[in-house]
Amino acid sequence: MSLLAQTPISVLDLSPIRAGQTIARSFTDSLALARHVERLGYTRYWLAEHHNIPGVASSATAVLIGYIAGGTSTIRVGSGGIMLPNHAPLIVAEQFGTLETLYPGRIDLGLGRAPGTDGMTARALRRDLTSHGDDFQPLLAELRNYLRTPEAPSPYAVRAIPGEGTNVPIWLLGSSGYSAELAGRLGLPFAFAGQFAPRYMMQALAIYRHVFEPSEVLDAPYAMIGTNVIAAETDAEADYLSTSAKQHILNLIRNDMKPMQPPVDSMDALWTAREAEAVASFLGASVIGGRETVAAGLEHLLDATGANEVMINAAVYDQAARQRSYGIVAELRDRAASAA
After folding, report:
1. What stretches pass through the bilayer (predicted)?
2. Are the CB atoms for 212 and 221 separated by under 8 Å?
3. Rounded distance, CA 166 to CA 15, Å?
4. Among 33, 94, 231, 281, which one is least packed by beta carbons within 10 Å?
């Protein structure tokens, strides 16, 4: 049976700010996309925490999760992820405890250990720049403790209210082996950020599965991979649409961040040969093309990684084309299922 037919498909959204459009429009477009993929049978809709990036509007991630969850009815909504060292664990527990209470059984808490921004902005976030993520494990343990139901609450204990007893599902996110190993040893689900770190994906997945220990959360490893997918009616159209994502990565390499740019007919005049190679490496696990190209690319990716779930980011400038990209993937999934 086709792997695409039997693998849950989810969405990663950064609520992109498009050149010439308002941030308010970014939010309404995100909600429209969430409603669209909910109808298409996608499993999750996650939003990513980033700061001080002119093209990303999802910085107040928990607030935006509430907006999306409130405007949908069945799809799971969560963070992909919350950068835990940026926040006090109690605050995260209260925020996601509130979300879980408002939208029971629909909230996911994906956690990362990077700042999600540059060093100057990390200082503005009051992040401890000397930790290098070394404090992630105790922060995670503290957060998990707040979300559990205490056996015998002490009147002197600090409690997350709301949050306590909600047991919001926690995922560990990563782009290297650190979070993969930690997720495995704790028996938690793991999501790899293949959308920007494809070269480490196979290694991280192998580490996660090798060290995995069953827990009260999982009996067996559960790995989700993130990837960029841009689907269109033809390979040429998809390649054209992908130039917005390529310009974004190019600007990231140059440290010249801008709102998402419209697609262009050719990137040749915008980058050097070395920059083109760097962008191609960044997009190494991406699937860009027409229907058959995307179907074959996703089947290959799922076969190579053995992923239990795939989370798709479609950085497309035009909202209608963006929704159509997710629609094509859903059509390919349904076609594969009906052929089985």
Report:
1. none
2. yes
3. 27
4. 281
- In percent, the amount of the chain with pLDDT more than 70 equals 94
DSSP 260: B
Identify the CA nearest to 242 among candidates 229, 255, 252: 229
Q: Are 23 and 310 in contact (CB under 8 A)?
A: no
Residue 259 pLDDT greater than 60, yes or no: yes
The pLDDT confidence band at residue 1, using thresholds 50, 70 and 90, is confident
pTM exceeds cut of 0.85: yes
- Would you list the DSSP string of 101-151? HHSTT-EEEEEE-S-SS-HHHHHHTT--TTSTTTTHHHHHHHHHHHHSPPS
Say how far apart CA 59 and CA 57 lie, in whole Å: 6
Question: Quick one: DSSP state of residue 264?
Answer: -
Nearest to 80 by CA among 208, 204, 170: 170
Q: What is d(CA 197, CA 187) in angstroms, rounded to the nearest whole number?
A: 23
**DSSP character string of 252-282:** HHTT---SBPPP-S-STTT--HHHHHHHHHH
Report pLDDT digits (tens) over 82-101.
Answer: 999 999 999 999 999 999 99
Is the pLDDT assigned to residue 155 strictly greater than 80? no
For residue 301, give both structure tokens.
């990716």
The C-alpha angle 237, 241, 243, rounded to 5 degrees, equals 125
- C-alpha torsion sign, points 294, 26, 12, 53: positive
Which pLDDT score is estimated for 32? 98
- Return all residues near 154 (Cβ < 8 A) that are at least 6 apart: none
How far is Cα 336 from Cα 340, in angstroms, rounded to an integer? 6
